């Protein structure tokens, strides 16, 4: 333990968006409770951005040797942070282009953490089934291990500390350093897509609870105009091939690990074969659907394809 008090240490992974990430940092540091440290992990290092970061108080710059994607960048940041982090410190993940929507988000997340820890100490953790809180964020979902579908919480479920299986990567997830230290950082091999889901399921399997504060989640939905509405659904054909490949591959892999072979085959058929047919028909090109099909196969045989990474 390196500090006598709890700290919040932020990690921001960026790729070719120097002005955007600097604006995000500015807005993060004006929170009512700002992070004690910010680590900027750059997947395409530039001297100019490094020099800017070095002038900021409590900010550190990490230059990656190659584009490792969001998953690899977060993994590298977590490895660095864990060197000095105490078990009760919290690691906050921030998208480089998605700053907090309210000025007091971090403060509200920390208040929810205090409430969960007090409940565990005073009443044995009745709110979290006796588990210690390992992760918290603005919004999350529950995972159906049979179908590998994510279920959005209904509006009336957003009360108190709502249990979830994972916290969205763009929803300011915060993870207890002790939990990250126990299960290990993000899986860098996932590169992009569902890396946050894999990490959440890994935490849950190790006995940690993940939650979202219902009041904050409701405020997020209201601000986004999504409160009182069914979840939006889309199958984005405009996604580049590398995104389609990794998302499909990673979801099949998660289904195989957490649901078994049958679940993995079901997901491969739905998102791989089904995605191939939908995209091929929509764009009138077999080539457009191949990344999903390839991703499904690579997920089943647990392989990756470095050629499907943007440079």
Strand content: 15-25%
Radius of gyration: 19 Å
Helix/strand structural class: alpha/beta
Uncertain runs with pLDDT below 50, 5 residues or more? none
H/E element string?
EHEHEHEHEEEEEEHHEHHHH
Q: Give the N-to-C terminal Cα separation.
A: 39 Å
Mean pLDDT, to the nearest integer, reads 92
The count of strands amounts to 11
Shape designation: globular
Strand order of the largest sheet: 3-2-1-4-10-5-11-8
Tell me the number of helical segments per DSSP (H or I, 4 or more residues long): 10
Helix percent band = 40-55%
Can you characterise this structure?
- This protein is of the alpha/beta class.
- It is built from 10 helices and 11 strands.
- The chain has helices at 18-29, 47-54, 69-82, 105-123, 177-183, 195-205, 214-224, 241-259, 261-283, 286-300; strands spanning 8-14, 37-42, 59-63, 90-95, 133-136, 140-143, 150-152, 161-164, 166-167, 174-176, 209-213.
- Strands 3-2-1-4-10-5-11-8 form an 8-stranded mixed β-sheet, sandwiched between helices.
- Strand 2, helix 2 (47-54) and strand 3 (59-63) form a beta-alpha-beta unit.
- Helix 9 (261-283) packs antiparallel against helix 10 (286-300).
- The longest helix has 23 residues, at 261-283.
- It is globular.
- The two termini are 39 Å apart.
- The relative contact order is 0.11.
